[in-house]
Amino acid sequence: MKTHNRPLSPHLQIYKPQLTSVMSICHRATGVALVAGALLLVWWVIAAAVGPEVFDKVQKFLTSWLGILILFIFTCTLMYHLCNGIRHLFWDAGYGFRLEDVYKSGWITLSIAVLLTSITWIFVIILRTTVI
Amino acid sequence: MEYIKGGKHHWLMQRITAIVLVPFILWFVISVVSLTKMDYASARDWIGSTSVAITLISLIILSFYHAQLGLQVIVEDYVHTKSARLAILVLMKCALIFVVISAIFAVLKIALGR
Ligand code: HEM
Hints:
The complex is a heterodimer. By secondary structure, chain A is mainly alpha-helical.
């Protein structure tokens, strides 16, 4: 593995934030946030198993403004982690290590994550407002 | 990166779960968005149908397995005291296993209790 020409010990106070370093830390942050999202899913499923009163309470929370905000952030984190995870897998397979490629794939990842999040929520809005 | 013993297996499982998670996550997002009615009865109908129950249980196991592998790396990166690290890792694993078992039980309860 080549180790020259790369920044060592990125002390966050010293280094200027760059797309590359910010995206890298975001993968970790979204990973942790997704654990909370997964727990939310488990909570919802357990509520459905427990009974109608508990389920309705959970459902009421999830459809409140706070709940919708949380679900929206969950979608953003999920799409980011999904796309950037695939970017990681390309690196693991040995592709995209040139610095310009790292930047290019970074922007592509961000764009696709924004696109997927938007598509998801456009569908949510269309389906929720037309069917009910 | 200190898990020299078994580090290869850990690394590989993190990638394999990541690859397998992709279709599951896409399925999950598309399904949940398409669930237009989300009252108690329809939620149970959805969770309890055989194909959804099986897919959902697989998704839950895969996600938490992948998450456990990832969280372990994070703990190993930031917690340097050996005993504290071991304690956190063991507790975390136990907690996640408990969550997964509860989730599987809940899905099965809905699927089999109809
Ligand atoms: C959609 C499918 C997913 C893909 C393609 C994916 C991909 C990846 C990859 C490749 C890594 C390793 C990154 C590295 O080596 O630094 C990773 C780490 C991680 N993932 Fe995922 N992931 C997915 C879903 C999830 C889900 C659903 C969760 C939570 C339940 C999750 C939680 C984590 C955590 C906590 C880490 C560790 C982050 C770190 O070490 O910095 N991932 N993911």
